[in-house]
Specification:
Number of domains: 3
Radius of gyration: 27 Å
Number of helices: 23
Number of strands: 28
CATH topology of the largest domain: TIM Barrel
Strand order of the largest sheet: 3-4-6-9-10-11-12-13
Distance between the termini: 42 Å
CATH class of the largest domain: Alpha Beta
Structural class: alpha/beta
Largest sheet: 8 strands, parallel, barrel
Oligomer: single chain
Strand content: 15-25%
Length: 679
């Protein structure tokens, strides 16, 4: 058996495997205490085979806690309130650590209780909030050290097996550690040892309160990835000091929220930051836990090589709570993937909403979906088994079919193309967006294993559907035909070359060198990046030229950002990328900038000529060179079949983009809900 699935030890505590669930904000709590929603969310994940669950976002200070729903341990009354949460984790077979956090300057004044001003080591403005925090006094620092220690004591009394102190991502301890945000002249500022003093003293106070046998860990950034702040070199030194201060393990993640280097999006290759943990592991004698865009295969390799001792998974635990068990059994194809899309998790939490998951429609709804015996709908058979015909093998069609088949229904899918996936295949086409294809692969495999029959190359019309229903006695028809791109009515010269973005993404058409993309939403931007990357330096060429120092780093960077086309995006709204999530949009806009792709907002396309387009924007009418015009102006639902057959066959439903075009997460949830409702 691979070492990832064997027991590991943190301090005196043995953990059944090396898989750790990362601390995450879920937004399910109320008034600092777990709700039934919280309990079932954790119960399902604890039962999935994970070794350790770190419960995050636990506040230690009533005056400076963030109101984004989390848990509180700043007074004794919360001890008993958290005990049921620890119990459900233990009942599932996992250990539980409490992660204690202070936001520091990362919370806006209006987000604090009673509008209390944010605090930090120094009064330095942060663009994260648009505010300047108040500098902590020495007396307040000592108060917070005790607050962490008292919260740790309460956590142990509530039944937690260990304590994690949050010093990563630019929160309060990270702010003290950094010379960028800590310019104090007292014993808590200046050199690295002084900047580490607050954290070291807190660890000592926590240790005194919880005793020598309770594991105490700290979570740090392996590199802040912010100019002027700590690098991995300093992180290694800080880790040594933390070990000397008495921690039993170091948990390593990536950089600050303020970093200009992507940290958690789909752009990151799996395990890209594992080198940070590997380097720290060389300096310390306590276990090292590593996170950030982790997947099972990467985790297995890291543990086998002894680069790190534990692998920490966050969003994969949202997508598939059972992935630890499936992975240990070698059933990797059965793991519902995390795409790193952030649509329902990070984008939601950063907007103050409770989290969801694009790939897992059950995430966060376990308590409302479970029956009295604690079973989810897909774990039990329908009362009346039906024969169902599904038209369309996109994400909605396959998710419905998977769900319905798991409940015992007989399901057949007609798909006009020769493969499944629908628009997921388009989403996976641009650079750094490949992971969308993993959901297609998972759904197809899950459908086949559940007994779903695929009929590819099957063009459906109302007559053929009604005939099939009558001849083969189908009880229900589901229309999941998706959407089609919009075709605008714009005056065009004969011979003007106009193509749809969807066809570009599919690789069905060629484009010239002067390209105008009409539409600056997600599809238009992704298409522009795909075209803009063509002709840039390949990874293989970059490796070769770097190894032999054939060109300067400046030249290589320029070649990475220099493609073969001149590309312009024309967007009628005042801002491009409005339909892209907060955690992803800035990265895509940065890529456009680096590729030299121009964007004209508040600009309408007036006319398409053979070698140029006419647009009307804030500066009036102008002409842009264009040998190719790419249309990315949205899509319209393909729901015609539903209207054609519903009068003759009443047991028919329509789901996904066939209802109205929207995000994949909405289509998955709608398909799942229909799948569990039939029968």
């Amino acid at each position: 058996m691979k070492k990832l699935y064997t027991p590991g030890t943190i301090g005196t505590l043995e953990i059944k495997n090396r898989i750790v669930m990362a601390p995450m904000v879920d937004g399910y709590s109320e008034k600092g205490a777990p709700t039934e929603r919280s309990l079932e969310y954790y119960r399902v994940r604890a039962a999935g085979g994970v070794g350790l669950i770190i419960v995050g976002n636990i506040h230690v200070d009533p005056a400076h806690r963030h109101v984004m729903p989390g848990f509180n341990l700043y007074e004794d009354s919360f001890t008993e309130k958290l005990r049921p949460l620890v119990n459900v984790i233990h009942e599932g077979g996992a250990k539980a650590f409490a992660q204690l956090i202070h936001q520091g300057r990362y919370a806006k004044t209006r987000d604090y209780i009673d509008g209390v001003q944010a605090v930090a080591p120094s009064a330095i403005f942060t663009r994260m909030t648009g505010e300047t925090p108040r500098e902590l006094t020495v007396g307040e620092i000592l108060y917070l050290e005790n607050a962490f220690a008292e919260a740790a004591r309460r956590a142990v009394e509530a039944g937690f097996d260990g304590i994690e102190i949050c010093a990563n991502s630019g929160y309060l301890f990270g702010q003290f550690l950094s010379p960028l945000t800590n310019i104090r002249a007292d014993q808590y500022g200046g050199n690295l040892e002084n900047r580490t003093r607050f954290l070291a003293e807190t660890i000592a106070d926590v240790r005194e309160k919880v005793g020598k046998d309770v594991p105490v860990t700290v979570r740090i950034g392996g590199s802040d990835f912010v100019a002027g702040s700590n690098t991995n070199k300093e992180a290694c030194q800080i880790s040594v000091m933390m070990e000397q201060a008495g921690v039993d393990a170091i948990s390593v993640t990536g950089g600050w929220h303020e970093s200009g280097v992507p940290q958690v999006t789909m752009d990151l290759p799996h395990g890209i930051y594992s080198y940070l943990g590997r380097n720290i592991r060389r300096y310390v004698n306590v276990p090292v836990m590593m996170s950030n865009r982790m997947d099972v295969k990467t985790a297995e390799e890291l543990i086998e090589r002894k680069d790190v001792d534990f692998a920490v998974f966050g969003r994969p635990m949202l997508a598939d709570p059972e992935f630890p068990r499936k992975a240990s059994e070698g059933r990797l194809e059965d793991i519902r993937p995390c795409l790193g899309c952030n649509q329902g998790c990070l984008d939601h939490s950063m907007s103050g909403k409770s989290i969801q998951c694009l790939c897992n429609a059950e995430c966060g709804r376990e308590s409302s979906l479970m029956d009295d015996e604690g079973r989810l709908p897909t774990e039990k058979k329908a009362g009346h088994v039906k024969k169902i015909l599904v038209i369309g093998a996109g994400v909605a069609g396959m998710e419905f079919s998977r769900t319905a088949a798991m409940r015992g229904h007989s399901v057949v899918i007609w798909e006009k193309e020769t493969c499944c996936g629908g628009q997921l295949n388009l989403a996976a086409a641009p650079p750094a967006r490949h992971d969308f294809i993993y959901l297609t692969e998972y759904l197809r495999t899950a459908c086949i294993k559940a007994g779903v029959e695929f009929c590819f190359g099957k063009q459906a019309d109302a007559q053929s559907i009604l005939k099939e229903v009558k001849q083969n006695h189908f009880d229900h028809v589901v229309i999941a035909t998706g959407a089609a791109p919009q075709v605008p009515r714009i005056p065009s010269d004969a011979g003007a070359y106009v193509v749809q973005a969807w066809d570009v993404l599919k690789g069905n058409v060629q484009t010239g060198t002067e390209v105008v993309v009409v539409g600056g939403g997600a599809v238009g931007i992704e298409t522009a990046i795909l075209l803009g990357e063509d002709g840039t330096l390949t990874p293989e060429a970059l490796r070769f030229l770097t190894l032999y120092q054939a060109e300067s780093q400046e030249t290589l960077c320029g070649m990475l950002n220099s493609g073969s086309r001149n590309i312009t995006i024309v967007e009628m709204l005042d801002k491009a990328g409005k339909d892209i999530g907060k955690t992803t949009r800035w990265i895509m806009m940065d890529r456009l900038r680096k590729l030299g792709i121009r964007i004209y907002t508040s600009t309408c396309l007036e006319e398409i000529k053979k070698d140029r387009v006419v647009v009307n924007g804030p500066d009036g009418i102008r002409e842009l060179p264009a040998d190719t015009v790419v249309l990315a102006i949205g899509s319209k639902s393909e729901s015609g079949l539903y209207g054609q057959i519903k009068n003759e066959f009443h047991e028919v439903s329509v789901i996904g983009d066939a209802v109205t075009p929207r995000k994949a997460m909405d289509a998955v949830r709608e398909a799942y809900d229909l799948g569990i409702s039939i029968g």
